[in-house]
Design a protein that fits this description.
Structural class: alpha/beta
Distance between the termini: 32 Å
Number of domains: 2
CATH topology of the largest domain: Alpha/beta knot
CATH superfamily of the largest domain: SPOUT methyltransferase, trefoil knot domain
Order of helices and strands: EHHEEEHEHEHEHHEEHH
Shape: elongated
Number of strands: 9
Bound molecules: adenine
Number of helices: 9
CATH architecture of the largest domain: 3-Layer(aba) Sandwich
CATH class of the largest domain: Alpha Beta
Mean pLDDT: 92
Largest sheet: 5 strands, parallel
Helix content: 25-40%
Length: about 240
């Protein structure tokens, strides 16, 4: 069985942990497919105030995460895993709006890595020397800003975990859905057949599997053309 280890380095483990206690990611962890642990940078602060950030040199607003606690937290995690699973190479990810854009194909690639170490920033960001010295891959979840890397880490890790073989509990899920083949999903219906005057398309009640498949494909194409024509042009 392939197993993935995930370490999340953050100032707010409590913002990450509950998400991975439920649903698909929760089950993947419970079943041993994934081992996940959160490490708080603050546990690696060295002064009496347990500082992890400081004002930027040169002035300006906000605070900057300091090198010391971040590099020490990384060294701690890497040391621990190297003892437990020698030879495993970490893929270190820094979540930042200036990173490589997250796409389904990047998620798919990351899902083949045995060990992800994810750094979540806050405030004004990381001291630049962390980028330079930690060998991180910078990733952005999109062209917008959220207030911390935690929200971005949850998006990335959820997207990775559900691609692990066995995580969804049925083989087809990830193949059939949106983006796996570059099209948006077809509409789905369940009981009742009529709700508030709105009905289910007849073809879905016909039992004719070929017709249903053809209808769904047509819907996928139509929706994609309407909502995301950029996907049809192949310019991801
Ligand atoms: N931190 C703040 N905004 C972000 C984004 N869009 N992607 C990754 N990390 C972030």
């Amino acid at each position: 069985m392939c197993h993935m280890r995930i370490d999340v380095l953050t100032l707010f483990p409590e913002a990450i942990e509950p998400f991975f206690a439920v649903s698909i990611a929760g089950r993947a962890i419970e079943s041993g497919l994934v081992t996940m642990s959160c490490v708080n940078f603050r546990d690696f602060a060295t002064d009496k105030h347990r500082s992890v950030d400081d004002r930027p040199f040169g002035g300006g607003p906000g605070m900057v995460l300091m090198c010391g606690p971040v590099f020490d937290a990384l060294a701690h995690v890497e040391g621990q895993v190297k003892r437990q699973a020698p030879g495993t190479v970490p893929t270190k990810i820094m979540l930042t709006p200036q990173g490589e854009p997250l796409t389904q194909s990047l998620l798919s690639e990351l899902s083949t890595h045995p060990w992800l170490v994810v750094l979540c920033g806050h405030y004004e960001g990381f001291d630049e020397r962390i980028r330079q010295g930690a060998g991180v891959r910078e990733i952005s979840i999109g062209d917008y800003v959220v207030s911390g890397g935690e929200a971005a880490a949850v998006v990335l890790l959820d997207g990775v975990i559900r691609l692990l073989p066995g995580a969804l509990g049925h083989g087809q899920g990830t193949v059939e859905e949106s983006f796996a083949d570059g099209l948006l999903e077809y509409p789905q219906y369940t009981r009742p057949r009529e709700y508030g005057g709105m009905t289910v398309p007849e073809v879905l009640l016909s039992g004719n599997h070929a017709e249903i498949a053809a209808w769904r494909l047509a819907q996928m194409r139509e929706r994609t053309a309407k909502h995301r024509p950029d996907l049809l042009l192949g310019d991801e």
